[in-house]
Write a structure and sequence with these properties.
- With 246 residues, the protein is α/β, with parallel strands linked by helices.
- The protein contains 9 helices and 7 strands; from the N terminus they run βαβαβαβαβαβαβααα.
- The chain has 2 domains: 153 residues, 3-Layer(aba) Sandwich (Rossmann fold); 55 residues, no CATH class.
- Helix content is 39%, strand content 13%.
Length: 246
């Protein structure tokens, strides 16, 4: 496969709205896609041209289009999908974006193939485990992207352990739309306390189950109570199909 030399987009006038392409080819809709859609909508609300390159068979495509976001079809099968890389190059060349933002590992793997087709290329890293050391310096280096956004200090530290220069990493915590939240009612507080108490009693009687929860427990906290809080958080986030019943 032959790629023609890239031509960088011209710089916008000072203070002019930016043209931003978010790349997320995942079909499932998880926490990362929630952040991608929220960021895109906020950029649009600020007056920027923010579009998404995503899989037409994915949930992000459906929700983004329903929210009025311009979506361009992009299916990436794996990190070595040259057809996907070619399709991404065509879209970026035609779209003339100021910024391309890679949001997932499969999207990020395409970064070296599209270098130079945008004024700035950035990647967001959300996982706090150490990425593959063999490719990390290359994929997070200047030959692939201009900058790296880490959502937490733990994520940044993991990137550094993989050989990424800390100077290339910017800490950008995930945003939270406070409009979705409100203080709990008295009845909801009582239900939450009852849930925590029930879970803590179960874990106190079944130590093995408590040990299976994330550890170590916070300093000075009872392991059973800490495990109960984990289950409570998972239930609130709709991330656990099962809870323990004493």
């Amino acid at each position: 496969m032959t790629f023609s030399p890239p031509a960088k987009a011209a710089a916008p006038a000072a203070g002019a709205p930016l043209s931003v392409a978010g790349v997320d080819p995942e079909r499932n809709f998880a926490g990362g896609e929630t952040q991608v859609l929220g960021l895109t909508l906020e950029l649009r609300a600020m007056g920027h041209r923010a579009e998404l390159l995503c899989d037409p068979a994915g949930e992000l495509w459906r929700r983004a289009q329903a929210a009025g976001v311009v979506c361009h079809p992009l299916a990436i099968r794996n990190a070595l999908d040259l057809a996907g890389a070619a399709a991404l190059r065509r879209r970026l060349r035609d779209g003339r974006y100021d910024v391309v933002h890679f949001h997932t590992s499969r999207a990020h793997a395409m970064a070296p193939w599209v270098r130079g087709l945008t004024r700035a290329a950035v990647v967001t890293r959300r996982m706090d485990y150490v990425p593959n050391r063999l490719f990390a310096r290359w994929l997070y280096g200047r030959r692939a992207v201009d900058g790296v956004a880490a959502i937490s200090a733990a994520v940044a530290d993991a990137l550094v352990r993989a050989g990424v220069a800390r100077a290339r990493i910017t800490l950008v915590p995930s945003g939270v739309d406070c409009a979705h939240f409100r203080p709990p009612s008295a009845d909801e507080r009582a239900q939450a306390r009852a849930f925590l108490d029930d879970q803590a009693r179960y874990f106190a009687a079944h130590a093995a189950a408590a040990r299976s929860r994330p550890s170590p427990a916070p300093d000075g906290d009872d392991p059973a109570r800490a495990a109960a809080w984990v289950d409570f958080a998972l239930a609130m986030l709709n991330r656990n199909e099962f809870v323990y019943v004493p």
